[in-house]
Amino acid sequence: MSLHNLKDVSYFDLNNQINIPVNNQIPLQKDQEALAAFLKENVTPNLVTFASLADRFDYLINHHYYEADFIKKYDMAFIEELYAYLNNQDFHFKSFMAAYKFYAQYALKTNDNDAYLETFLDRIAANALFFADGDEKLAMRLADEMVHQRYQPATPSFLNAGRENRGEFVSCFLIQSTDDMNTIGRTINSALQLSRIGGGVGINLSNLRAAGDPIKHIEGAASGVVPVMKLLEDSFSYSNQLGQRQGAGVVYLSVFHPDIISFLGAKKENADEKIRLKTLSLGVTVPDKFYDLIKQNADMYLFSPYDVEREYGVPFSYVDISAEYDKMVANDKIKKTKIKARDLETEISKLQQESGYPYIINIDTANRANPIAGRIVMSNLCSEILQVQTPSTVDNEQHYIKLGKDISCNLGSTNIVNMMNGKDFGGSIEAMVRALTFVTDHSNIDVVPSIQKGNRESHSIGLGAMGLHSYFAKHHMHYGSPESIEFTSVYFMLLNYWSLVASNKIAKERNETFINFDKSAYADGSYFDKYLNTDYAPKTDKVKDLFDGVQIPTKADWEALKAAVMKDGLYHQNRLAVAPNGSISYINDTTASLHPIINRIEERQESKIGKIYYPAPYLSNDTIPYYTSAYDMDMRKVIDIYAAAQEHVDQGMALTLFMRSTIPAGLYEWKDGRTDKMTTRDLNILRNYAHRQGIKSIYYIRTFTDDNQEVGSNECESCVI
Fold first, then answer.
1. Which stretches make up the Ribonucleotide reductase large subunit domain (predicted)?
2. How far apart are alpha carbons 245 and 717 in whole angstroms?
3. How far, rounded to the nearest angstrom, does the alpha carbon of residue 26 sit from its chain's CA centroid?
4. pTM, two decimal places
5. Which of 352, 597, 690, 698 could make an SS bond with 360 (beta carbons 3.0 to 4.6 A apart)?
């Protein structure tokens, strides 16, 4: 038998029986039977085995499956010690989906894809050895974190670590264009290059002049942003890693850009084929002023980026529109267009109902909370990366006259259930930060010099979390309840504290900080004020019990950390971000990200296979009442959970809102006496609520329609898997 010739296997049928109730009970044992059958019928007969570890590594290196350099940094005696430790941990997948996803998508296979060369423990060992870079103590600690599934590197890192033929370790990229043809051309080239090497690409187009703006003083000459969007969509379709994956990108535009209506219109189903965007994602950056104008039911003005840049001397994105709005309205030198703010709000909601787009970036909220000198102007393909950028200038030969600063994303996640079992937040998080730091230090995206510069100067990482709903259900907490919100705040406070401790320790060891640390709120100590003035320790008995045995930093601890950071600095400009997750969470046998589940028994359509069913982690008669579907939940509860985490996260979080076309009775009080159908008003209210709660970004709006279809499902493979 080989992986190309699997006949008479039973595991798919056994897995499918989960969806057939027996005596009104979910036959969860069928999932365990499917798991056992998969390992017996698929994995064991198709796993290449070796007489010794030395033979295995010699084979993998000689046949160009593994790089030799990272193995040579260790004695074989240590590698054998690490493997002995891993084997003694008695790791077992807990579900069929976890094992299936790992072996289908992550395990190294022979070049003909006919046999497995790795088990899960082999992939963990490769990651631990690779990211520890010769440090035996760190390698053992990383192996411990990963085998107990407290830490999960993002897909690009976990998949590629140690492999000779590999993609990049980073997840996605953020670039921006300024308002001239040379930079637009360079941006399109950058999109091609970045899509080629893997990962999603976010592109800010807010600085481009609007349709009808002058070119060399010729009125009405500019074509606006939509033709550039079409060029970018075609670029991603062409640059698709030799057909292995669809190139993925998102374009961002300011809600005050004159092309905002045509920008949104390009995604509509009934848009003219000349402008319609089929695969490119859309995001809108929204300043506070837009929400103010909505409340007032006022007119709003859209401003010519060309004129704004001439008046302010910086590209449009770098102007604080909320602060300058009235001056810009009064300035006759700035061309402007008047529309009703609520009309634009409704257009946004209509498109979100139809397609799930656009993502919303509350740009003033992000910048108010930003401790770094500079301005955040956009986000990434999954809306969780929020870092400062600076614009570039390109000459006629496509050389940089002024090299700006752009962003690459380097992600990993804690598994909340297992982190809480481990109790040693400090040791665990330091190991994770060091693994992510290795990726940052060894990334060299030279095809886009602005990203290369940003990475070298910032050393940014994005540590996040998954499995929040699993944890709530396991401990009998309803998602969105007061104790669940309190737990979330404490957990992310700990993530923040210990990642700061680790970053400070690395800065002290290396005598190096991120560029412009001295201009940050960390350097002057003001960042720490809220932790010195507010007690984030557990308050209720329930949450105190959950954190029993976990070290909770005291005010004195925060004061000591403040002093250490002011003295020795931080190595990482940014540390925390929460990605949406997906297949990675299945392998961890936990729920994705911070979201509530969609179904207690999730149904996934796998290409060439059919349907696979995945029971929610820890599903039992005891936990069923705590597993409410996201589609049956008041989205304000989800927003409140994310807001509790956002208080401590320096970047953003991929917050998705889940709606039904027909909204369950009693879910939202404003529906009483009105239609039970989802309307634009529902989305308007929820977006404004999220803004008031301090949410920095809203990812997809996912709608479950009356004909059992989903609109706005995740498409960002880089972060999702």
1. 558-580
2. 9
3. 33
4. 0.96
5. 698
Report yes or no on 379 lying in a domain.
Answer: yes
Mean pLDDT is lowest, of 217-226, 329-338, 597-606, for 217-226
Q: Which of 507, 469, 450, 399 is nearest to 182 (CA)?
A: 399
Phi-psi domain of 345 (left: phi exceeds 0; alpha: psi -120 through 50; beta: other): alpha
Q: Where do we find the tokens 């927003």?
A: 639
Quick check: is 19 in a domain? no
Distances (CA, A) of 350 to 346, 481, 712: 6, 31, 13
The secondary structure element, H or E, covering residue 704 is strand 701-704
DSSP secondary structure letters along 641-657: HHHHHHTT-SS-B-PPE
Hey, what are 299's tokens?
């007119």
Q: What angle do CA 338, 343, 346 make, to 5 degrees?
A: 150
User: Could you say which of 384, 483, 486, 717 is catalytic?
Assistant: 384
Give residue 311's pLDDT: 97
Q: Which residues of 70-87 are buried (b: 16+ CB within 10 A; e: fewer)?
A: bbeebeeeebeebbeebe
Residue 6 burial by CB count (10 A; 0-12/13-18/19+): exposed, middle or buried? Answer: middle
Query: Which residue's structure tokens are 């601890």?
Result: 557
The neighbour count for residue 212, using CB atoms within 10 Å, is 17
DSSP assignment of 613-677? EEEPTT-STTTGGG---GGGS-HHHHHHHHHHHHTT-SS-B-PPEEEESBPPTTS-GGGTTS-SB
CA 149 to chain centre: 19
- pLDDT band of residue 26 (cuts 50, 70, 90) is confident
CA 46 to CA 48: how far, in whole Å?
Answer: 6
Please give the sequence-ordered ranges of beta strands (E in DSSP) within 138-205, or none if there are none: 151-153, 172-176, 200-204
Select from 205, 306, 222, 191 the least CA-distant residue to 260.
Answer: 205
What is the chain's Cα-based Rg?
25
d(CA 611, CA 614): 10
Strand partners, 43: none
Tokens representing residue 66 in the block: 């593994």
Residue 719 annotated in active site: no
CA 392 distance to own-chain centroid: 26
Which residues, in sequence order, are bridge partners of residue 463?
Answer: 412, 576
Average pLDDT value for the chain: 94
Name residue 202's beta-bridge partners: 174, 250
Please tell me which residue in 382, 409, 716, 719 is annotated as part of the active site: 382
Amino acid at 439: V
Tokens for 562?
């403040």
- Give the CATH number of the domain where residue 250 resides: 3.20.70.20
Answer for the pair 574, 436: CB distance below 8 angstroms, yes or no: no
What average pLDDT does the segment 539-564 reach?
A: 97
Structural domain boundaries, residue 204: 172-406
Q: Which two tokens stand for residue 691?
A: 């803004």
Rounded to an integer, the average pLDDT of 434-443 is 96
Interatomic CA distance for residues 564 and 60, integer angstroms: 45
Among the listed residues 182, 380, 415, 496, the single catalytic one is: 380
Q: Return phi, psi of residue 496, to 5°.
A: -65, -50
Our count of domains for the chain comes to 1
Neighbouring-strand partners of residue 359: 283
- Known catalytic membership, residue 42: no
Cβ neighbors of 513 (< 8 A, separation 6 or more) are 507, 568, 569, 570, 571
Check residues 7 and 93 and name the one with the higher pLDDT: 93
Distance CA 388, CA 355 (A): 29
- Does 207 fall in a domain? yes
Report helix, strand or coil for 283: strand
Per the CB < 8 A criterion, the answer to whether 657 and 710 are in contact is: no
Query: What pLDDT sits at residue 715?
Result: 46
Q: Which residues of 368-378 are buried (b: 16+ CB within 10 A; e: fewer)?
A: ebbbbebbbbb
Q: Residue 217's pLDDT band (boundaries 50, 70, 90)? A: low
Q: Is residue 279 part of a domain?
A: yes
What does the buried/exposed string (b/e) look like for 114-134 if buried means 16 or more CB atoms within 10 Å of the residue's CB?
Answer: eebbbbbbbbbbbbbbbbbbe
